[in-house]
Specification:
single chain, 243 residues, alpha/beta, Rossmann fold, OB fold (Dihydrolipoamide Acetyltransferase, E2P), 2 domains, five-stranded parallel beta sheet, five-stranded antiparallel beta sheet, 15 strands, 33% strand
């Protein structure tokens, strides 16, 4: 089994490597100091398993997983806040709360070895994590070969694009492999309203809303964008704007 360790603490990485000496069937191919290195290592080695810290510089563990097309099995090694622990219990292979000893580590590996099939349970963890305040103020995307962090304050609107969502910002547009429903759940509802099946708008940028035909409307943004507003979207807008 191929493994990668992703943790910004050298001591934490060395402890995992030491404990893994009891499991010769698990081979560590690379150690990574942050999420940027982690993404590259996963693409390069296609590991079966990663040991992943959550609180890291640059991008955190959740944001790193969002950038991986087909995430491997994950054992979290973390001191992250308790809100996510229930998600780990249900959806991750296991989580190890720092500091952890050899006995607890062994239990995690036994769980791993008992897994017959893996159907990306990390996705459910990401859905839960996205609702954390720590995750709701920025979005991490891949732009070519680079990783870009977008502050939510720079988002003008979002548009559904097949399996992706196109994020329009002050600095251009970017694609993220998520659903509109994901962003409805993770972005602040008082700032972003889904006005149409295919559009979500930053309400702070709306200059006016003009009626069109059949109870539909058109929202004008300060950027010059003109976006369709459905009947249901118009009701949501009125409620959010208090009109």
């Amino acid at each position: 089994m191929k493994a990668v360790i992703i943790d910004d603490e050298p001591l934490a990485r060395s402890i995992v490597k030491e404990y893994l000496q009891s499991y010769p069937s698990i081979k560590v191919l690379q150690e990574c100091n942050d999420g940027f290195e982690g993404v590259k290592a996963i693409h390069q080695h296609e590991p079966d398993l990663i040991f992943l810290d959550i609180q890291m510089p640059k991008i955190n563990g959740f944001e790193m997983l969002e950038l991986v097309e087909n995430p491997p099995m994950v054992i979290f090694t973390t001191a992250f806040e308790e809100f996510a622990i229930k998600a780990f219990e249900t959806h991750a292979i296991d989580y190890l709360l720092k500091p952890f000893g050899k006995e607890r580590f062994d239990k995690a590996i036994q769980k791993l070895l008992q897994v017959k099939s893996y159907s990306q349970p990390t996705q459910a963890v990401l859905e839960t994590a996205a609702q954390s305040p720590a995750q709701s103020n920025r979005i991490v995307v891949k732009d070519g070969g680079k990783i870009k962090i977008i502050p939510v304050s720079q988002i003008q609107y979002l548009e559904a694009a097949d399996d992706y969502v196109k994020i329009f910002t002050d600095n251009g547009s970017f694609l993220k492999k998520k659903t509109m429903q994901f962003f409805e759940q993770s972005l602040q509802p008082e700032l972003f309203v889904r006005v149409h099946r295919s559009y979500m708008i930053n309400v702070q940028l709306i200059t006016r809303i003009d009626p069109t035909e059949k109870d539909n409307h058109l929202a004008m943004l300060t950027t010059g964008a003109r976006l369709p507003v459905s009947k249901g979207g118009y009701l949501k807008l009125k409620e959010t704007l208090g009109i």
